[in-house]
Each structure stands twice: as structure tokens, then as C-alpha cells.
User: Which sequence fits this backbone?
């Protein structure tokens, strides 16, 4: 059982969804990333998706693309991200899942990459550009190291394909709420509840919803029907202000924003976190 499996098992026993925060590694630098993750742990974030910057965006909107571009321009290396996780994973009260391109995994070698994940304390992998038809080798290696391999299902994924993806998944399923790229939205799609309910009926794995979630009212809507909510661009946009504001101010304002998103979950759970 991976640390992610254990997290969702615990949350299901107390009846609340997970709050998942996406953070791009190295923007504006790795020390900022480290400081932010420690603060997120104190706030009650349940899981962090830590993005390894890469140059070819898959479904990333302009906010996350820009963050990756800034980190790459400063020369961030994959090994530095592993070193960061190795320093802090044991001191955080939430698991870390790396989000990365398959090209990065493939270049290092599947077993070497996953072994280093396990050695440094990574609990799971999200590889958005790895299709289900080619995912079995990486999935096998991940299972041998008790690492979750978390797939994406989108609104346009046909039902049969969604079931195939769910059958091979581990950890949780990342359900993409909208057709398109990442980014903040004013409203969530009307059909989201129906599609999410159907997917949850097809698997025993937790289903977490991401893309477009950026407001407390979004969290309040999804909390009763999803196993987790994922917030990315809205956090990354605030991190980007470190280019023009004092670092401590940006850390504080980012944490205040995340705290506001956690309130709908806290309201249902007075003993949270």
C-alpha cells in the first residue's frame, strides 16, 4: 500500500475529501518551493503534486507554462527536484506525487527513475502524456516499489477507455473537469456532477477533480461528490508574484488563499486537519 493509498483510506473513514495542491518545482527557486510545502503542511493540505518543469506543455495553460519556463531558464535539474524531495518528504505530513513528462522518465530509465522516487520519498507519479496503451511497463515498475501511478480521465474519454484506465490505475484517478487546458474558471461545467458520479461508479479507487478549481464555492460544490479536489493554476498564479513582490509576502498571501479554499472542508470537519 502506497502512502497515497493510506491517505485516502484514512480520509474515507472520516468522510472528507482530500485537498491536493499543485506546485511547480523551482519557481521562483527551490528554496521557495521548500518553504511553501512546509507551510502547506501546517495548513492541512493533504497531498502535493510537485511539477517537474519541462519545455513541452501537455495540458498546461499559460500560468503553469510560464512557471515552468521561469524554472528552466534558471537551470533547474531533475536531480535537484529529487534532492528537494529527499530533504523534506520525511518532515511533511502529506505525500508527494511528481507530475512529469514521460520523456523525463524514459530518458532516465523506468526502473532507475522509479527507484529514485522511492528512495527520496515520492509516493506517486502523474504522467499526463503516457497513454494507457503504453502504460503497463511503468505501472509494473511502480507496483514493485509501492508507488502509485495516477492516470487522467477527461470529459471526452469514451466510457470503455475510462474503464480500462481505471482498471490499471493506482492511488487515485485524476478527473479533468473541463475540455481544454489548465487554468482558473469562474464556473464548473454543468455536466461535471453526472460524469464524476458515473466514473466513481466504475471503480473503487478515489477520484479527484482538477482543472479550473479556484474558488471556495467550487470546493463546496465538489466536496460531497469527489474524493479530492486539485488546485493548480490559482496557486501558481500567486506564486508568480514572487517576481515582483517580497518573498515572505508572496508565501503569506499564497497560504492565505489556500486556507480560504480549505474552509469548506473544515466546515464539515471541526477537528480538521
Assistant:
Amino acid at each position: 500500500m502506497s502512502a497515497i493509498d493510506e491517505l485516502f483510506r484514512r480520509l474515507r473513514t472520516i468522510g472528507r475529501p482530500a485537498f491536493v495542491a499543485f506546485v511547480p518545482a523551482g519557481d521562483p527557486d527551490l528554496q521557495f518551493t521548500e518553504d511553501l510545502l512546509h507551510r502547506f503542511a501546517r495548513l492541512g493540505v493533504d497531498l502535493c503534486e510537485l511539477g517537474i518543469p519541462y519545455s513541452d506543455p501537455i495540458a498546461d495553460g499559460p500560468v503553469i507554462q510560464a512557471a515552468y519556463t521561469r524554472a528552466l531558464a534558471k537551470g533547474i535539474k531533475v536531480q535537484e527536484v529529487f534532492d528537494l524531495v529527499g530533504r523534506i518528504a520525511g518532515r511533511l505530513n502529506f505525500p508527494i506525487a511528481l507530475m512529469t513528462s514521460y520523456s523525463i522518465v524514459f530518458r532516465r530509465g523506468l526502473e532507475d527513475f522509479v527507484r529514485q522516487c522511492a528512495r527520496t520519498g515520492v509516493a506517486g507519479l502523474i504522467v499526463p502524456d503516457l497513454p494507457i496503451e503504453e502504460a503497463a511497463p511503468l505501472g509494473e515498475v511502480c507496483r514493485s516499489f509501492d508507488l502509485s501511478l495516477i492516470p487522467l480521465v477527461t470529459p471526452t474519454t469514451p466510457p470503455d477507455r475510462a474503464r480500462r484506465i481505471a482498471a490499471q490505475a493506482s492511488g487515485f484517478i485524476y478527473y479533468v473537469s473541463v475540455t481544454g487546458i489548465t487554468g482558473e474558471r469562474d464556473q464548473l461545467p454543468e455536466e461535471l456532477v453526472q460524469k464524476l458520479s458515473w466514473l466513481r461508479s466504475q471503480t473503487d479507487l478515489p477520484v479527484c477533480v482538477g482543472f479550473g478549481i479556484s474558488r471556495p464555492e467550487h470546493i463546496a460544490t465538489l466536496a460531497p461528490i469527489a474524493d479530492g479536489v486539485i488546485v493548480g493554476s490559482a496557486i501558481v498564479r500567486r506564486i508568480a508574484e514572487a517576481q515582483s513582490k517580497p518573498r515572505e509576502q508572496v508565501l503569506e498571501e499564497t497560504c492565505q488563499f489556500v486556507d480560504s479554499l480549505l474552509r469548506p472542508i473544515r466546515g464539515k470537519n471541526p477537528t480538521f486537519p
